Amino acid sequence: MQRRQFHAALAAALTAATASAPAQTATAARPPAAEPDHDMSSMPAHWMGREQIAMLVYPEFTALDLVGPQYMFASLMGATVHLVGATREPVRSDTGLVFVPSMTFDECPSELDVLFVPGGSRGTLAAIRDEATRIFVADRGSRAKLVTSVCTGSLLLGACGLLRGYRATSHWVTRDLLPLVGATAVDARVVRDRNRITGAGVTAGLDFGLSIVEQLRDREYAQAVQLLAEYDPRPHLQAGHPRRAPAKVRRMMQAMFTDFHARTRDELTLQSQRR
Q1: 30 in a domain, yes or no?
Q2: Residue 185 half-sphere exposure, CB side, CA atoms within 13 Å?
Q3: In this model, does residue 21 exceed pLDDT 50?
């Protein structure tokens, strides 16, 4: 479904529930050809916005960290969603999906309604080490109305000084590193502290994105987006959180990321000392 079709379908679903005027009946003398597909006259004014949303892309970020929230953000009627990269060259994610930035750091609006940073492992560590990326995130984040992330994207926000004094979350593997950037680590799917909104690992991006849709529109709008996406997760496995995962599986995954955790810890410590 194209974004325009999505908006039309969403508007139809939402306005049908709140329409106060009776529908007009077409007559033979006046065929309905010139009528819009959907009557949007009763749509609440606040359902149409003008938000500028920037979503950072960088080599080897985790694709689903971005795709879930992007789907939700794209449902915001009137909003403009930018994929922002260091250049306009295609960016390969950690799963091999390739994303084409719509603008560069320099081209990105200076005043944003939402700044979003996805996470990853090696890619995020490289982004934390990249001065141009840190400068961009710190600059736009200093003025954005909402400063947000999913997964280890919060570590990049923190490396830019944007989480000091805030409560935040991250992927469970790296959540304990948040105090290194001055943040208070919270074990939760989505954490809000003033204008900082952070999501936990990967799939938490869907919950995160839907919560922002509700904040920028309202609950009914968000419920319509949720229904259209048929977002009703019921996994047959119950190992999606360290507390519920079998101990053997948890130890295996922790061991897999031991080196990444150590290197990220060292880099965040270094960045904190420089600030």
Answers
A1: no
A2: 17
A3: no
Q: Which residue has the tokens 């709140």?
A: 18
Residue 176 lies in a domain: yes
| DSSP labels, 217-228 | S-HHHHHHHHHH
Residues annotated catalytic, as ranges: 151
* CB-based contact 129:105 (threshold 8 Å): no
Instruction: Assign residue 168 the CATH number of its domain.
Output: 3.40.50.880
How far is Cα 13 from Cα 1, in angstroms, rounded to an integer?
15
pTM: predicted TM-score of the whole model, two decimal places:
0.88
The pair of three-digit structure tokens given for residue 170, joined into one six-digit string:
């991250």
Domain count, the chain: 1
Answer whether residue 142 is part of any domain. Answer: yes
User: DSSP class of residue 56?
Assistant: E
What letter represents residue 54's amino acid? A
Q: Which of 136, 64, 139 is nearest to 105 (CA)?
A: 136
